Structures
1.
Amino acid sequence: MLFNSWLFPPFLIVVLILYRVLPDRYQNTMLLAASYFFYACWDWRFLGLLLLSTTCDWLLARAINREPTRAKARRWVACSVGVNLVFLGFFKYFNFFIDSANSLLSSFGLSTWDFHLRVILPVGISFYTFQSISYIVDVYRGEIQPAQNPIDFALFVAFFPHMVAGPIMPSRNLLPQFQRERRTTLLQVGTGLWLMLLGFFKKVVVGDNLAPIVDQVFAQTVAPAGAAVLLGVYAFALQIYCDFSGYSDIARGVAKLLGIELMVNFNRPYMATNPSDFWRRWHISLSTWLRDYLYVPLGGNRGGGAETYRNLMITMVLGGLWHGAAWNFLLWGAYHGILLVLHRLFVLDLKVWTGSSLPERIVSRFVMFNAVCYGWLLFRAGSFEQIRNFTAALGSAFHLRGLGLSESITLFGLAAVMLWALESWTGNADDPSRSVGWQVGLGPLICSLMVVAIVLFAPPVAQTFIYFQF
Amino acid sequence: MRASTSKGVFQAWRAWGQWVIIPLAIFALTEGMAQAIFDRVPRWYSAALQAAAQGHVDVVFIGSSRVLAAVHAPTFKREVYALTGLCPRTLNLGMGNSSDAEHYLGLRKLFASYPDNLEGVVVFIEAPAGLPSLSRWTGLWTDRYATWMLVDLLRWTDLWPFWRSSGHPVSDKLHLTLRLGARGSSTFNRRERIRENLLTAGVSWLVGLRSGSVPSTPFRFDPDNLVGPDLSYQPDAVFLLKARELALRTTDESLANQVAVRGWETTIQEDLLQLVRRHGGGVVFFDVPLSSVFARLYASPLRQDDIRLFARQAQVWGAPILRPRMEFTDNDMSDLWHLNSSLAPTFSIELARTWVDVLRARGEEPAVGPDFGEADDGMLVPAC
């Protein structure tokens, strides 16, 4: 079930009503049933996989907690992480590794393996796998007690607002919320509704209407003009931001209506002044996860220069691969790894650029935005050939002929200005009621215009969220 | 005390009242604009209703976007007039993404609204290679990518059979039901059209503002073009390339999954035939130009059998199948889906000739209603 499908509003209304009328002790059971129903609407067959993964992790966490020594507990951690990664690896990476191995074998003139599985990627598997791993590691580290009630834990894994595309919540943050009685405050209802409105606006008004421009540019087999490539890449930057942060906003809004707080996942990422700042603003829940459960265990920045650079590269390459089983995601991750290494080397270690004055900050933002956008070209491209052609085109032929460029640029400009104005006005805060003019009519005016825009600009058929494929 | 109470009430009113008044004002304004612009210029069956209100309708073409592209109603009408001296008032209701169920429900609405002005109407049904599409009420009622097209045509009593049909997922059924409930609002009911206009004509208008050449907006009623300009169609090289790729992919899939097209007595076409007959009209099936990519769908032994069997069924129904004698190449269909607009008059002339030949072979003439215009000298003359 998609948030932007016609099935979601009645589903949410029924869930909210049941949530209000049921006694506290039945709320989690109802939410779990609703979450499984939500997931089964996409494909009920993968509920078995979800149940299996959940049961394993619940039992293994208890086993970890029972072990008297950390060495013995570590075995269970390895077992749990192994099981989770086997599921993830099989469904997400099996064919990728076979194809890659075949390419390698054929390049050496060797015979290739003639099997290819028709595997459907279970939606949300990357998200709930990482969340389960965080729980196991947190239990091992003693940061959290294992859940006694399997329903609480199953709900932690499958909570429907964030299950299929995040935010990936640390167990120490989310699990306790399911283990205590909850009361939804009026502020949570207000901010929840605002976040949902904002999320739908970003997704269906901005993101979905930029998609045709992006698709048209990236459908080119030969390189279009440099201006078209630039437009396509900028439009994709805005599309993926609106699509993904829109999903996170809706997820957080729905959770707030249920009295649950999910972490902020995006904080105006294109205002970042350097790569490190960007990853503190973009997909914050994933970058936090990668930092806590990969970068730090690898050694983080404790080992000094070379080791830190190595750890950054490993973390970012694996982070790229997490997005999808394709070489361009790996390349995208490596590219961001290089940006982080360069930033660390020249700015933090050699201090060749301070970026503290206003002009320097403006220059830094401009450079960083364009660096991130080049990363989106790697991310969105369909082949290495397209990456090469589009990169070459960026340095040539900046004319506006073909592809209805004037119209596309106008549409993109409108979308960018609308979004920038909206985010500047609210300061990206959950509670927009402190924004200038909110109390004297601007709040209801903006909200009404957003509702009208959603009604009028939503595509005739609900478009899936980009991050569902990951 | 009293003053402070009044102040408190005012503050509460300002806090909560603005959340009622301002949204209502915005929605009323939007609705007013939507009605003023879009209801004034109806489309498709709503436009046909407007045309039917103005006088007798003699010929109606129904089918897909192929019919819309290939049939030029004014040329068809003039050719029949040239051949017979009779001028059939002709509407082309071909529409992209339309379904048989929608055409049935649309015609039902026309008959119910203006039975006298549709008495004896001849309905031309698209039958590529002599084989119309086969659909049943238990299947899809509308294209899954254009469910909203059904809203204007449904009655509340249709909802139960629609929910019972197995073709649509629950989300489609819910969507249609909610849309039916909000049918009174132009903002909701015409939102797809408004969106298309805003994103294409609206943006072009903005671009024109910048360059100083503002194009005229396409908001006017044209009885010869009931579906309005196709704003999504961009005859540029990229669009055509994608359309051709899609044509190949779609037909490849269809060829791999061909099943027999049989059992015409339980189809929507059968109901449509009965509906038209109840109002004294008749049904004609007609071939439409196909590119080689689509023609191969009808060349398989299975489809050839289907075509033979349908020809027998059409005989039982007493409905002729018109096969205009025209040769087209793929160059005449730039996107491989539709006949190029420059050739629509040629096809329409040939179609009119074939129809008149069939009628004459039966000893009949086109049935034309009393639709006369007034000439300068006050004499009533056919409006051809």
2.
Amino acid sequence: MTETAESFKAKSTIKSDDREHRRKINFNINKYNAVVPVAKHQFSELMVARERAKNAKWRAIETLDQQLEEFERQFTKRGGKVIWAETAEQALEAVEKICKEKNCKTLVKSKSMVTEEIHLNQFLEKQGIESVETDLGEYIQQLDGEAPYHIVTPAMHKSKEDVAKLFAEKLGTPSDLTPEQLTLVARVKLREKFIQAEVGVTGANFIISDIGAIAITENEGNARLSCAFPKTHIAIVGIEKVIPTLGDLGLFWPLLATYGTGQKVTVYNTIVTGPRQEGETDGPEDMYVIFLDNGRTNLLNNPKTREALYCIRCGACLNACPVYKNIGGHTYETTYSGPIGSVITPHLKEMDDYKHLSNASSLCGNCTEVCPVRINLHELLLENRHEAVEFGMATYGERIAWKAWKTGSLNRKMMNLGNGKLKNWMINKVFSAWTAHRGKLNFSNKTFNEMWDERNGKG
Amino acid sequence: MQISSSKENVLKKIRQALANPVPVPFSQSEGNTSVFQPSTKELEIEFAENFTGLLGKFSFCINEKELAQQLQQLAFAKKLKSIYCNEKDIKQKLVTAGFDNFTATDVAACDASITGCELLVARTGSLLMSSAQTSGRTVSVYAPIHICVAYTSQLVYDIKEGLLHLKEKYANKLPSLITLATGPSRTADIEKTLVVGVHGPAEVYVFLVEG
């Protein structure tokens, strides 16, 4: 077993036994579950909406090269610059180069999972640049030196008392502040940073190819401020975020909000088409969009896994997943956790190091059920398992065990050998690896043949 | 050189992958019909209900004179000392109608800002604004209180309609930023507890004027 898999198993074992963790997560997810059905009422044809969204993403991804080039054509017309990055390193190099040119000392960041993926903050810190997370949840996580726990709700695993204690330790505030007071502390601290920063970094929820723009979805206003005050705006975005037309946002904004946070639309949905234009009052002088591949073309390459690129990062599959709810977001030790994380991480990184995540699933299919763009998530988990075996990544013991199982279960004579007790002993004791993390198998005392004969009066 | 070769490499990988196409997932669902609940009320009422449902504060004004009076009352009730407005036509209309209480010289110093908008979206209770307005990117988001002056002729029912309207209006000269703002700035990052006024305004007013 690889080191990552060992660590995952050990952490899962501990977390799933942590009652306090489970209480906090259930509290949060129950609140989410209460509002999502309300937001769904805005749709008269919810299933058609979801299917059309999948069609739109299909259209974008099946012509991805043309979409990205069309974006570049439109975006550069307004003075924007596009940088293509094959790897995280290339994206970081590009950011470094821009920051040096602009003599950047402080950088404000709005929430972005792609910047987590390339570990931008750690990189900038080494360059001596202060990188400030401005989304409240991310700000909390940055103060605590932790990665986001959830792709939409970064500090989901912290109670209000935990946050008050953290602020007291790190910022010297009284230790009994309410969520309102804590939010105000962050507001005041971060206001200075928006004005001070030379560069603003955002992600993007969508790349709109027909008009050459990016769109950012948020509730707080920090993304709007991050691309308003600093003289330079850098948007780092995965190449799969494309939607074909501006009009598609009329569908995607409400879908993302409904499944992400149970809102009809989030408070701010902002389209940025470039730097400040002639005659405009304010805005950055320069705007860069960095297109990041970093393994996404691996997912594209297999027609079966391709649809994982349709993901709009709403987090619904995390909230619905019985495994996620028990082991929590950090146990995965990946940027993207939950079902979608288990599907894509082996392709973005190494299959051998992350294939175990695809086995951390009961295949209940709830993730597929709740996905707004109808990605067949649980089938993709199976596809990953298949790929891992195909490329010979299963252990020797596992392969022998399945071979024996296959031979046995295809042969009626062998199936009829021995009673239930013997079979139980075989499986539960001889193949003890099976029962280490699973319940014991319990075979029927009589074979199927015996029962069939009895029923038909031949016994 | 490095950057352009990265582009070529990424595009090459994409094209190679796409040599194996996959079929459209749900051809039976294609179409342009709306998937949202249709409007059942007049757009003014639809907007007012949805906007106030999200903690927005709504007021209807029969004309600009009434608008000026209502603004006066609001300034008095909220003890607003410095109001900022950077849109000439709105300022002029308000001054003509008898409201000239603009003492703030920049948005950083104000306790409320007044802006116009491009359109109002009734179904979601949203303001559609753009950087083509002289308020730019900052005024409606940086002030602690945002007051929007809008006209009934600016109402559309849904988001797509609003976006396509702007695309047509500006043709090849789209503003550098378009934002759909729906209610006051909010967060629920701490235990999913709703708190308003994180980075943007804690209060948003819409004065909808007939016309």
